[in-house]
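Input (structure):
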């Protein structure tokens, strides 16, 4: 598959490494392609361009920018996101310090970031995924308890099926929580996931849904 990633941070680079490992063609998009030249040299086959280039390149697009910049990045991506699955890995973290390890969001429990994005970009088929685990455990993580669970949601079943296939390759089981509104519950999993990190410097866990 061709995968275009909007972002140049840890998440973008780790996911790009995972996609390349599984033989997907991968392009990272950033406002400053020059800053990824060293990374691109170390990753054979990795391509780098603008947000617009990466969106146009991908059959699947990954949104992996700072939460407050998500809409700007999708605007910059332009028509390239139309009709495609867009994996939304972002979290709406506010620019305020955590309270006793609990992050602050700029959204509310009645309106998630992904709902806002889906409303502004109805042509994109947004799927929430990868937001509730640290970048170090995103690609084929190994846990004694088996495969961890990635909670996903989105309005388009075909897009979610494509994303579930990618998650399976990257070592995750998928729990589909339904429509875009479920992002109200999935985005705050990031807050929960980060608490042991802020309180006890534990950043290597993942969630698993037991049935
Ligand atoms: N770090 C993790 O372990 C982790 C885990 C799960 C989810 N997440 C979420 O994944 C997303 C990416 O996290 P990250 O830690 O990799 O990187 P980050 O530092 O949160 O974001 C870096 C990216 O944001 C873009 N950006 C920042 N301001 C922008 C603006 N005004 N307009 C357009 N783009 C802008 C940057 O674009 P340029 O390339 O152009 O500079 C860069 O690509 C975040 O939403 C985060 O909450 C992170």
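Output (sequence):
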């Amino acid at each position: 598959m061709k995968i275009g990633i909007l972002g140049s941070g840890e998440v973008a680079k780790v996911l790009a490494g995972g996609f390349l490992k599984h033989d997907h063609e991968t392009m990272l998009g950033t406002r400053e392609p020059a800053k990824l030249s060293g990374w691109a040299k170390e990753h054979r086959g990795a391509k780098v361009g603008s947000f617009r280039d990466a969106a146009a390149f991908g059959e699947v697009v990954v949104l992996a920018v700072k939460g407050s910049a998500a809409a700007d990045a999708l605007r910059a991506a332009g028509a390239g996101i139309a009709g495609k699955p867009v994996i939304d890995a972002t979290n709406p973290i506010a620019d305020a310090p955590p309270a006793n390890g609990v992050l602050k969001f700029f959204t509310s429990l009645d309106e998630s970031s992904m709902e806002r994005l889906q409303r502004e970009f109805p042509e994109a088929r947004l799927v929430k995924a990868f937001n509730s685990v640290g970048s170090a455990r995103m690609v084929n993580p190994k846990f004694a308890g088996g495969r961890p669970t990635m909670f996903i949601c989105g309005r388009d079943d075909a897009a979610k099926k494509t994303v579930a296939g990618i998650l399976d390759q990257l070592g995750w089981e998928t729990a589909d929580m339904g429509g875009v509104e479920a992002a109200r519950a999935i985005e705050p999993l990031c807050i929960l996931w980060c608490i042991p990190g802020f309180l006890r410097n534990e950043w290597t866990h993942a969630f698993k849904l037991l049935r």
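Notes: Helices lie at 10-21, 37-42, 51-57, 70-77, 113-120, 157-169, 183-186, 189-200. Strands lie at 2-6, 25-29, 47-49, 60-63, 85-88, 125-128, 149-152, 173-176.
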